[in-house]
Write a structure and sequence with these properties.
The protein is about 5% helix and about 40% strand. It is mainly beta. The strands form 7 sheets. The chain has a 7-stranded mixed beta sheet, with no helix packed on it. Strands 3, 4, 5, 7 and 9 form a 5-stranded mixed beta sheet that branches. The chain is globular. The longest helix has 6 residues, at about 180-185. The protein has 5 helices and 33 strands. It binds copper (II) ion.
Length: about 475
């Protein structure tokens, strides 16, 4: 019989609390040596007890700036990004100490295209080790941001990304061992978009109508400081591109929105207006074989979904709220003007690759050891993460089937992320997968007791890569393991 109090000590469970070990939950402000502002209450915010709350739709959602390369050659763009503490404006009228890429709470967007190499020099100006993982990317192990492969304070590191996979919405974020949840929560995340020549011929909305939006949750104290280390379910503010439940003016035409859940432990269930239709065109690893019309979309931590919304169906002056079942209003689209629209969503997008027959089967079980004090221990196949151990050794070129099970009791949900490859989900609990599992995936959400059968081919890089629960509070507690791809 599971002790209720123990269960509540975990995140990922409604009403639960997750406390991180001492030293893991240092407030950014203290660690960064900043004096945070005791700002007065701002327009659009109100103090509720010891917390700060935002009035929905009081600020406009910003577009994320695209990072310019320092230099470019015929096939490579070289960027420089500083990892540094900064005071940023998230809640109207308040200054919030954060960890940032180039001073931005949601890091700058890197937009490249298939076959162009991206090299990024990261300079770590924090007082602690950090590193960078390009989530969903097909990269050599030396540039994957292995949890133990960190950039020490004051040091720099060049990451090299070949961008050889098909066009997709990737994101970069901190992956430093035991501090990944805290670092990402405080702002170390941003988009890395790979565009595809063959995609541009499809006629999808592009340019100013192709908009990345990072959704996440957060909790602020009355001074506007981010609160980390408590119960993730209590985070009551939803941010879109770093602003609380903003509004966004749109033209009466089609838009492509690239949504990323950048929350460390959050599952969104999104609906638009009064059951309005959204057309899903892509998932984690790029375009779906065909568009799928949806009225609700589930998006858990680290997942991406690309939606085309056609605002030409609504009169000028219409306001449409993107709403989450738990957190309420996420973002309001205000249809404010007309615009020409030559874009379209073709009936066929891109077929899935046919993977070779699998020759290896593996079982992966995610669970918590609820008996350890003061914190539960995250386990994969019964063991907490140990970077010196290879849990799986995979021969290069092999196609494998993994049966991934959420082995925890009712109420504890998990996500699963496999580095290095995009996989295909064959079955969920023995049945054909639903739309949330379709396409090229690198992360999925699953409920207690669920088993997800996936297939992947490991045909490229050698070396050590992680796989883990992408509720980062869970991976921080050990719910992570390691595979090594060998010749
Ligand atoms: Cu988990």
């Amino acid at each position: 019989m599971l002790n209720r109090r123990k269960l509540l000590a975990l995140g990922g469970v409604a009403g639960g609390a997750l406390l991180l070990p001492e030293g893991v939950s240092r407030p950014a402000a203290t660690a960064a040596g900043h004096q945070h502002h005791h700002a007065t209450q701002g327009l659009g915010t109100r103090v509720r007890g010891s917390r700060l709350a935002a009035t929905p739709f009081s600020v406009q959602m910003p577009l994320l700036p695209e990072q310019r390369p320092v230099t470019s050659t015929s096939d490579t763009d070289l960027y420089r990004i500083d990892i540094l503490p900064a005071n940023v404006n998230i809640m109207p009228g308040f200054s919030t100490p954060a960890f940032t890429y180039n001073g931005r709470f949601t890091g700058p967007t890197i937009r490249t295209r298939v076959g162009r190499r991206t090299k990024v020099t990261y300079n770590n100006h924090l007082d602690r080790p950090a590193n960078v993982h390009l989530h969903g990317a097909h990269v050599p192990a030396s540039s994957d941001g292995h949890p133990m492969d960190v950039i020490q304070p004051g040091q720099s590191r060049l990451y090299d990304y070949p961008n050889t996979q098909q066009g997709c919405t990737l994101w970069y974020h901190d992956h430093s061992h035991h501090t990944e949840a805290e670092h990402v929560y405080h702002g170390l995340e941003g988009f890395h978009l790979i565009e595809d020549e063959s995609e541009s011929s499809l006629g999808l909305p592009r340019g100013g109508y192709d908009i990345p939006i990072l959704l996440r949750d957060a909790l602020f104290d009355a001074n506007g400081t981010l609160i980390f280390g408590g119960n993730p379910a209590e985070r009551d503010t939803v941010l879109a591109n770093g602003k609380p439940s903003p509004y966004f003016p749109v033209a009466a035409r089609k838009y492509r929105f690239r949504l990323l859940n950048g929350g460390t432990e959050r599952t969104f269930n999104l609906t638009l207006g009064n059951d309005q239709e959204m057309t899903q065109i892509a998932t984690d690893g790029g375009l779906l074989p065909a568009p799928v019309v949806r009225k609700s979309v589930r998006l858990s931590s680290a997942e991406r979904v690309e939606l085309v919304i056609d605002f030409s169906r609504y009169p000028i002056g219409t306001q449409l709220v993107l709403n989450d079942a738990t957190m309420g209003p996420v973002l309001r689209f205000d249809v404010t003007r007309t615009a020409a629209d030559f874009s379209r969503v073709p009936a066929t997008l891109r077929p899935l690759p046919v993977l070779p027959a699998a020759t290896v089967n593996r079982d992966v079980n995610l669970s918590f050891d609820l008996t350890t004090v003061p914190f539960p221990t995250g386990l994969i196949n019964g063991r907490p993460y140990d970077p010196s151990r290879n849990d799986f050794v995979i021969k290069r070129g092999t196609t494998e089937i993994w049966n991934v099970t959420n082995g925890d009791p009712t109420g504890i949900t998990h996500t699963f992320h496999l580095h290095l490859v995009q996989f295909q989900v064959l079955q969920v609990n023995g049945a054909a997968p639903g739309i949330d599992f379709k396409g090229r995936k690198d992360t999925f959400w699953f409920d207690s007791g669920d088993t997800v059968k996936l297939k992947a081919t490991f045909d490229s890089y050698l070396g050590k890569y992680a796989f883990h629960c992408h509720f980062l509070e869970h991976s921080s507690l050990g719910m992570m393991a390691q595979m090594e791809v060998v010749p």
